[in-house]
Every structure is written in C-alpha cells, then in structure tokens.
Design a protein that fits this description.
Shape: globular
Number of strands: 7
Strand content: 5-15%
Helix content: 40-55%
Distance between the termini: 49 Å
Strand order of the largest sheet: 3-2-1-4-6-5-7
Length: 369
C-alpha cells in the first residue's frame, strides 16, 4: 500500500476543512432560506386570519337582498377591496390574494349565515368576459356559473349558429348579455364582435364548451390588472417535443420567434383562456381579433407586453368536432392561413424581422429544449 506524503495529507486535511466549511455555509443558507419562507408563511397565515375576522364582521351586517347582487356591485366585493386597501401594504401574488379572498369570504359567509363561494378581488380596473358558444347547452351554464364567481361587470355571451338550448341556458344567468347570431360565425369572429359590446378595461376570453374554474380564471384578469397588456394560457407543459409537434404548433412558435419573443413558445391568442387590456384592443382595433395570430403579431410589433400566466389544460377538454380532428383538418388549415396573414400584415406595415446572432446549433438547442 502506497504511503501518502505529509504534504498530501496536509492538503487532504485542508480540503476536508474547506468542504466542511462549505457544507456549513450551505446548510446555514438553507436554514436561513427555510426560516425566511417560514416567516412569510406565518405572515401570510396571520393576514389570512385577519381577513377571516374582517369578513366575519362585515358578514354580520349583511342583509338578505345582497345574495342577489352581482359580485362586482356587492358589499362582499366592496368591503374586501376596502380591507385590502387598508391592511395589505404590497400587492401580493395571485396565490396569496386568492387565499386572502377565500378567508374573507369564509368569514363573510359565517357572519351572514349564507354559503358563499364567490371570489372577490381588489381590481383597480373594470373587467368583463366574452364567451363564444355554438351548440353548448350541456356546458354553457357551468361556464357562466364559474364566471359569476368573479367580479366581472358583465359577461358577453355570443351564441353563433346555435340550434340547441344554449339560449335558454344563458338566459338563466343574470350576468349574461346575449348576442344571438343565427349563422355560424366561428369563435374568433365571435370574440371580435363580443369585445365591441363592452367597454371594460380588462376583457377575458373563454369558450362555452370548456368549463374552467374561477380559481383558474382569476390569475388572467389579475395579471392584466397589475399592468400587463396580455395574459396567455401557458400550454407549453402539455406539448410534445418539437419533432412530434403538429404544423399548427410549429407555426405558433415560429411567429413568436421571428417577432423576438421565443419565451412565449407556442402560446397565442388562439387558445383560451386569455385576457387583454383595453388599451391594446383600442390600439390594434376590435376587428383584428377575428384573426388571433394577426392581432398578436401586431400587438407584439407595437411593443405590448405578453405574459404566460399559468397552464390551464384546455387541450384534453376541448370538444372534438368533425372539422378539428385529424391531420390537415379544416381548423388546422385555417389557423395556418391566419399565421400567414399575420406575417403578411407585418411586412405590409414595414416590419422587418430581427437578425439572429445565434448559431444554427444554438437555435436548434433552443427549439428542442
């Protein structure tokens, strides 16, 4: 067995001492980080308890007629917004805000003696929703039930080409303003028409065939309310690797990349839910929403800010129709054509793509990430 020299042994002791020191620093930092997180959790918990007590006090003064009011004009919404203004010093993230909202509502329900599952939010701007539906009698009512739980000023329901009981289903909900079009417009045209019917500062878009919980919808209006121009559904986690993606997904990624926003991946205004600021809509025009990729391209080229809010799985829940399934289906061809129209509109406006400084290998690496 070879003997180790004294210098080697000394180096070993020094290295070991260094490793022990590094381990101590890392452990200390880890404990410190955990302690900070614990303080934050404790602080959030105390604030949530305070929200419950404030809601309990407000609920004690509630009257029976309040249950019939739409959330945005209700005492629940008003008192929660007032409490947040007085006691929440810094605007929290949406997860914390939803926790505070739930605590306050639970207290309010306890004080008033009535069950309440609504979600008040202290919005600085007015909000509306646009719902497009075509023969969605089985799901439309459930979609509107979730929207009623949020502080929307109005919900525009665009019924296009309905031959079923979608109209009676929508009529059961007082928040719904119904636009009935006998012929099939398509969801994109319906969103454009529905947007023209509201002047709200924030417009959320969703469809009548996919039931999305109010908890999942709230982050989209909250993100635009805090200053973002567009809030997109982040579908990246549900997409396969590039080599397995269909032509529509690749078109979406390509358009975002040439516009200088590869971080958006394959996400676009073609997917719901998403929310837009009124200033963006007013600038590009309601009519541009009829071609979602074109609207997105024009907005990004003008410098409007888009954010990926959170993943909401609308792919598996999307209603299968004869025209949107199979390779080369009519819907896919339409969307591909929309992306070509978007690029054409940009070039007509004098836009030029940014030159890429990355190598081919770097581009391939980002594409296959």
């Amino acid at each position: 067995m070879r003997k180790r020299s004294r210098s080697a042994l000394a180096r070993s002791r020094i290295n070991w001492a260094g490793r022990k020191s590094r381990h101590k620093r890392r452990a200390s930092a880890k404990r410190g980080g955990a302690a900070i997180q614990s303080i934050h959790r404790e602080g959030a918990s105390k604030l949530a308890d305070a929200a419950y007590q404030a809601g309990l006090l407000a609920g004690n003064h509630a009257v029976a007629e309040e249950a019939e009011a739409l959330l945005y004009e209700s005492p629940l919404q008003r008192t929660f917004a007032d409490w947040c203004a007085a006691h929440v010093k810094k605007r929290p993230d949406i997860r914390t805000m939803l926790r505070l909202s739930r605590s306050y509502t639970d207290g309010y329900a306890k004080g008033s003696g009535r069950k309440d599952i609504r979600i008040p939010l202290p919005l600085a701007r007015s909000a509306a929703a646009v719902v497009c539906a075509s023969n969605e009698q089985d799901t439309l009512g459930k979609v509107l039930q979730q929207l009623e739980r949020l502080p929307f000023r109005e919900v525009i329901v665009v019924l296009n080409g309905c031959r079923d009981q979608s109209y009676p289903a929508a009529r059961k909900h007082r928040i719904a303003s119904i636009l009935h079009v006998p012929d099939r417009l398509g969801h994109d045209v319906g969103r454009s028409v529905g947007t023209a019917m509201t002047s709200a500062d924030i417009v959320l878009f969703t469809d009548g065939d996919v039931v999305i919980s109010a908890e999942e919808l709230a982050p989209f209006i909250y993100k635009v309310d805090e200053g973002m121009d567009a809030a997109l559904n982040d579908l990246n986690p549900y997409l396969p690797p590039y080599v397995q993606q269909d032509e529509v997904t690749r078109c979406k990624s390509f358009l975002n990349t040439v516009l200088g926003h590869p971080e958006l991946g394959a996400n676009s205004l073609t997917a719901v839910p998403h929310a837009l600021a009124r200033r963006l809509i007013a600038d590009i025009g309601n009519e541009q929403l009829m071609v979602p990729p074109k609207a997105q391209a024009l907005a990004l080229a003008k410098g409007y800010r888009f954010a990926l809010v959170q993943p909401v799985d609308v792919i598996s829940a999307n209603r299968k129709r004869p025209g949107n399934t199979g390779t080369g289906n009519a819907v896919a061809d339409l969307i591909i054509g929309d992306h070509a129209e978007a690029l054409h509109a940009l070039l007509d406006a004098g836009w030029m793509p940014q030159s890429s400084s990355g190598s081919r290998a770097e581009v391939a690496l980002r594409r296959n990430a």
